Amino acid sequence: MLTDVDLPTPGLLWTRWATLAAALTGIGYADVWFVDERGAHHDDHGGSWARLALLDGARAVLFGYDRDHSATASADPPLDLLTGAPAWLPWDDLAALAEADRLGFVVWHDQGRWSRVRYRDGLADGLGDTVGAVLSNENTLRELGEIVEEWGQHALDTPAERDDVREASERLLATAVRGEVTGGAFERLLGRLTEPALDLRAALFAAGRGGITAGTRPPRIAPGERPSMRRVRKLSQGEHDRLVWAAMHDADELRRPAPPATGELDALAEWMRERSPAGDGRCTVLVYADAASMSVQSGDLPPGDRAGETRHQAFHELNDLVRRLRRAEADPRYGRWLFLRVRTTANGVQIERRYDSWPQWWADDGVSGPWRTNLQEEMDSRALAWRPGWVRLLDPAIAFKPN
Fold first, then answer.
1. pTM for the whole thing?
2. Do 72 and 105 form a contact (C-beta atoms < 8 A)?
3. Do 192 and 261 reside in the same domain of the chain?
4. Same domain, yes or no: 207 and 80
């Protein structure tokens, strides 16, 4: 189901975008807001990005992703942002981004209105966070002022200079709307900068590429073609995780020889006795470990802290001891255990290893658990005969269906 979206016209969005692109390019930042033959782009170089493309027939498409606010990309259950989208969109780009969970919003303009897929109430898509600078005239003027102060490293110390920058920004934006930007508009706004200094030729070139100088027009892309088939996520990342974890709960341990006695186990047991919470040698350690991560849960007698030590010292020591033990007990055929429970007394030690299944004593909150990529790496290191049946569920294709 689709819904209308209240956004400025494509022409206004484009003009503001191209103005920011030209101003930033003029002071040496040509890869933040910029224009090329594929449209107008924004990239914060931290994982958030957006693109606006114009097509003939007063059509346009705006799409992107915000690393912190595009909850649509990881919605649980999953949300297909391309259901019902028109055939003329740039499908090659959009389908690949959606499949990689890198598409937070897609809105398209046709017949005088912006449209998109309807979201569940309260689900954020990150559009305003990513392209907020071009969503209103005031926002763009504020961004131009920040280009002077922050990007241009020029302090506006007096009300008169702040007013002058405001007026210069208004003039630049007004001439951009008319498609009549000249060098004088850039010089008035950015000529005050010294480091970085204005490169007028670069600013005018970028303005021309954006179609806001006399005799130029914005680039337009050709209409796309909806694919006959595409992969659509049927399981969210969380649902895929829980599918794997449920299978691990149900799995049985394959019969394998117990690893030989090692000094590493003796070292772990001695460390636990020294940190016995009651001082009588009794201690319990519950851990999950793979090649890239380790997590700990509290048993009935978790290791105690020593007086005067740093907050995470005990965890770091335990991590080192567990990893040494795991390496010592590794077998090139059987693999390495994933879950470990160790109990000590003053004179003894009990140990339980789980290579293939999720033990009952390891709490499952439905949110935190082994990463599928880490599990795949662990399984790939084993001989085929020693891989449990749930390994097939690690395949990323499990989460998709053709559409």
1. 0.85
2. yes
3. no
4. yes
Clarify whether residues 93 and 226 are in a common domain. Answer: yes
- Looking at 174, 201, 231, the residue that finishes a domain is 231
| Domain end point (choices 204, 231, 258) | 231
Instruction: Check residue 16 and give its pLDDT.
Output: 98
Residue-wise pLDDT for 341-367, tens only, equals 999 999 999 999 999 999 999 999 999
Considering the domain architecture, whether residues 352 and 392 belong to the same structural domain is answered as yes
Whether 403 shows a pLDDT value over 70: the answer reads no
Q: Range of 113's domain? A: 2-231
Could you report the per-residue pLDDT of 262-308, keeping only the tens digit for each?
999 999 999 999 999 999 999 999 999 999 999 999 989 999 988 88
Q: How many domains does the chain have?
A: 2
- What are the tens digits of pLDDT across the range 120-171? 988 999 999 999 999 999 999 999 999 999 999 999 999 999 999 999 999 9
Amino acid at position 77, single letter: P
Q: Are 149 and 207 contained in the same domain?
A: yes
pLDDT in tens, 44-62: 999 999 999 999 999 999 9
